[in-house]
Design goal:
Layout: H1 13-25, E1 30-33, E2 43-44, H2 51-66, E3 70-74, E4 87-88, E5 101-102, E6 107-108, E7 117-123, E8 142-145, E9 161-165, E10 168-172, H3 175-192, H4 198-208, H5 227-232
Parallel strand pairs: 1-3, 3-7, 7-8
Antiparallel strand pairs: 2-6, 4-5, 9-10
Amino acid sequence: AVKVVDDEGFIYPEYAVCGFMWAAQQRMRVTNSSYFVDPWLFTCADEPGQAVAHEAVRRAVQHATRAGVFNVAAVGNESTDLANPVRDVRSPDNAPAPGPRPVDDDCDVLPAELPGVTAVSAVGSQRLRSSYSSYGSDVVDVTGPGGDRAQLPVGSSSGCVLSTIPDGYGYACGTSMAAPHATGVAALLASTYPEAGPEELATLLADSADPQPDDGHGFYGRGLVDALDAVTG
């Protein structure tokens, strides 16, 4: 694990950059990023004050990828079409009162929308898109179990995923739960194919995923990650 979050819960660009650089230095095979880079939900490459942050994180991810690191990231819980972003209502998230602002295709959720990153959406127990999960054609690569309180499994009082929380375990829903599932499958692939680089691991992960019905909105990417098929298929 690489700690990139501060004591107030923020992950600023320099923290993410250091995390990716350190992962590259340590020759990690796989990383998981269950976060977006603060303080902007969408960091805009054409906006003063954001362009430098966007470029810095992009370069760090590129460096890690070239060093052989396969990077996976959550797309976020805004139920937003990332292929056609129009409005950001929660940035900057370190301000007393974040205000809505227009965004466009020059604005990305970092690191999920960067080249070389496998972007993961979330589904519930019925394998349908979780109500909160962001999505987007040509943005989402695969989907993973993130839970959804609207999709209750039989005999369960929670549609969420049993997760680690401060001081123990609890049920939580989010793409932050989905992305680690995909990362875990990627790690299995990395152990099964020790010579595979990031691009090949991305292909193997996508090819082994269970296709979901084509929704036309990029809810699921290539499908739901499948650990068994990944290592036996």
